[in-house]
Amino acid sequence: MKPIDKKIYLASKSPRRRELLRQIGIDFELLLLRSDGPRGPDVTEEVHPGEAPADYVARVAKEKAAFAASIIQQRRMPARPVLSADTTVTIDGAILGKPANYTEAVAMLEQLSGRTHQVLTTVAVHYGSFSGHVTQVSDVRFGALTPASIQAYCMSQEPYDKAGGYGIQGTAALFVEHIEGSHSGIMGLPLYETAQLLRQAGLPLP
Q1: Do residues 106 and 154 make contact, with C-beta atoms less than 8 angstroms apart?
Q2: Could you give all domains of the chain from N- to C-terminal order, each with its CATH number?
Q3: Could you confirm whether 161 is annotated as catalytic?
Q4: 79-109 pLDDT, tens per residue?
Q5: Cα pseudo-dihedral 150, 18, 30, 77, rounded to 10
Q6: Which of 160-191 are b and which e, b meaning 16 or more Cβ less than 10 Å from the residue's Cβ?
Q7: What is the C-alpha separation between 41 and 76, in angstroms, rounded?
Q8: What is the rounded distance in angstroms from the CA atom of residue 17 to the CA atom of residue 173?
Q9: Active-site entry in 36, 86, 92, 139
Q10: Fewer CB near the terminus (10 Å): N or C of the chain?
């Protein structure tokens, strides 16, 4: 089954993923899943007991894509590939989610200071009988952060909707001494892997 047009559904609230898709010329329509409310989220992002970071990020991304695909089918929406992604930060085998408050954000950055951590992003695509996903892993090393720089950063709005409490596309770029992997993957959508999946789903890309 080929897409009826060159547009996809993006099942993500992340403005960074929208920017990255626009960067490579992919048109999309937002298909937002419920994250709260009386009935709870459409897909839970809670970590299962003993779940490894790679298993966690892949499970969440695949569940989001599958749920979005079921919505498309139920509502009889135009047939297009649906893309979802999930990003997590891990250090010492622990998953660092999105900090809920200033104290959590400070603690995360103190943990990352002067050390190398991993950023994992899984991209999942559903379209008809096609269901594929890929996980990209990048190593990120922070320089030694002063208490003043951590506190100043955590008093901004940047840390609070991002895994690990920072965004490499913002002022936290000042913290990054070295990366090995995918810059766009660290932002939340590895573009090389994303393009590969969308081609496999039948989207005509260069």
Answers
A1: yes
A2: 7-200 (3.90.950.10)
A3: no
A4: 899 999 999 999 999 999 999 999 999 999 9
A5: -150
A6: eebbbbbbbbeebeebeeebebbebbbbbbbb
A7: 22
A8: 18
A9: 86
A10: C
